[in-house]
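Researcher: Last one for today. Full complex below.
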Amino acid sequence: MDRRALVGGNWKMHLDAATAAALGRDIAASAASVAARIDMAIFPPYPYLGAVVEAIQGRIAVGGQDVAAEAEGAFTGQVSASMLRDCGCTTTLVGHSERRHGLGETNQLLARKVRQAIDGRLRVLLCVGETLEDREAGQTREVVLGQLEGSLEGISTDDMAMVDLAYEPIWAIGTGRTAGPAEAQEVHEVLRSAVGVRYDARSAARIRIVYGGSVKPSNVADLMACEDVDGALVGGASLQAGSFIEIARATAGLE
Ligand code: PGA
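Model: Here's the assembly. Have a good evening.
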């Protein structure tokens, strides 16, 4: 099955109102030829979602960096799936390592977030990834499979049509150190076959598994050449329209 590649830009807690809107406009201005070939999404900070959605003019998807585990209610500081939809989002990250490890979000919590996102008609980009300690202890496979299984608790085969995965080794995020193509491919293959075992062969063939962790214009082509790498989740290099578009163009096979 041919999978349409996906390139996401995770802006994290960067930029201000003016620079976020300007970055959205710059991306929109050069995204057309690339977005015809691959899916693109950006994940701005919550307060700037409205302005960025307006700047992007539907050229590519805009998403939340997180979503609440409940539909509505007394949850101070949380943003629900329907609120994200209201702001023009069509997708959301769930389980980024800065939330799993930085904020202690558990698989059980993340599974509820995945549920809420899907029920709210948002696509989910579910992140998994091991620490350097895990990798050095030979635990990469166990760790990412545990995260995958735990965060997909209660998610059905039909639901999986709304889910993409991001493999982001924590030791490669924001460090300038990237997993080599062979290291990435190995884990992506493990994840894809786990989806096949847990769901079915169709889900395994269909699910997009993108790589994240210090992706740059200079290393993206080698990563994309891997059979099971279906795109990239980009942090630092997504904060400049030029490098983000360059990564997207390389992923789309454009010069
Ligand atoms: P990075 O971040 O590209 O800056 O390493 C990736 C991510 O955390 O999604």
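The longest strand covers residues 123-128. The longest helix spans residues 17-35.
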